[in-house]
Design brief:
This protein is an alpha+beta fold and about 270 residues long. Helices cover about 40% and strands about 25% of the residues. The protein is globular and about 55 Å long. InterPro entries: WD40/YVTN_repeat-like_dom_sf, WD40_repeat_dom_sf, WD40_rpt, WDR72-like.
Length: about 270
């Protein structure tokens, strides 16, 4: 496993790389594997993920959604968390802002917060990872959801902790992820469905946050130089279906603030 992972960049053109990833995933989830084998498989997967992040994420998220085994889903979620922690020691920047929320007449403060940028190659793939994690919690498959709920919650928490474009509100049970295209996708974790899409920016979304009551969402794009406050609502179709899977987009913020980045300061 170690040789395969360390030489992955050399060997990749000569074998089925996705099959190698799946073999390592199987070793990490096999109950007959020793703790040493499990850790070795996880380390190998992290090394492969660092070399070819797109292949790694595409393979594991596909298997996360389509696997019928709770053990396999749990193993994949643990590998995602392991990967996040192992690559989380790079760039940092400070985000300081005072954001007025119109409806709540409160100030939601993202102040002196150090955001960690673990793996730049992972940023474009965050929506895929988040969607895979949400779909794995399908309430229609109750037994599976209950079996993986604790691990899935921990993995989603890790994404929120390390990646500013991912945000969660416990009371509302909503998860949000910003995209490189400038949209922000909101999920309802109770139904494990896409609830709303905010088409807020024309540049990548740098950070996302919920208001304390979960009613409003703030999106920020450093490249665009704007910070916007939104009040997303599901509308009539959303209330009827419990999800917003098509044409669920809002384009009018309730507040827009210009921002400027100077060095490591945001003002």
């Amino acid at each position: 496993m170690e040789l395969c992972a360390k030489g992955f960049a050399t060997w990749e053109p000569h074998f089925n790389a996705a099959a190698v990833v799946r073999t390592l995933l199987a070793l990490s989830s096999n109950s007959s594997s020793s703790p040493v084998q499990v850790k070795s498989a996880q380390r190998a997967l992290v090394q492969i993920g660092t070399v070819n992040t797109l292949l790694f994420v595409t393979t594991i998220t596909y298997d996360l959604v389509h696997s019928k085994s709770a053990a396999e889903k749990t193993a994949i979620l643990k590998v995602i968390s392991y990967f996040i922690y192992k690559v989380s020691a790079s760039i940092e920047f400070r985000l300081t802002a005072l954001l007025p929320f119109v409806h709540d007449v409160v100030y939601y403060k993202l102040s002196q917060t150090w955001f960690c940028c673990p793996c730049p190659a992972l940023y474009p793939l965050l929506p895929k990872i988040v969607e895979g994690g949400v779909k794995a919690l399908d309430p229609n498959v109750h037994q599976m959801r209950q079996a993986i709920l604790k691990t899935a919650t921990a993995t989603l928490h890790d994404l929120v902790k390390f990646y500013p474009p991912v945000a969660f509100h416990g009371g509302a049970q909503r998860l949000a992820v910003g995209t490189m295209e400038g949209a922000t996708v909101l999920y309802d974790l109770r139904t494990a469905t896409r609830w709303h899409v905010i088409e807020g920016h024309v540049k990548p979304v740098t950070a996302v946050a919920f208001s304390p009551d979960g009613r409003n969402v703030v999106t920020c794009s450093f490249e665009e130089g704007t910070l916007k406050t939104w009040h997303p609502t599901a509308g009539l179709l959303g209330m009827i279906t419990g999800s917003m899977n098509s044409n669920a987009a809002s384009t009018k913020p309730i507040k827009t603030l210009p921002i400027k980045v100077e060095g490591d300061e945001f003002c």
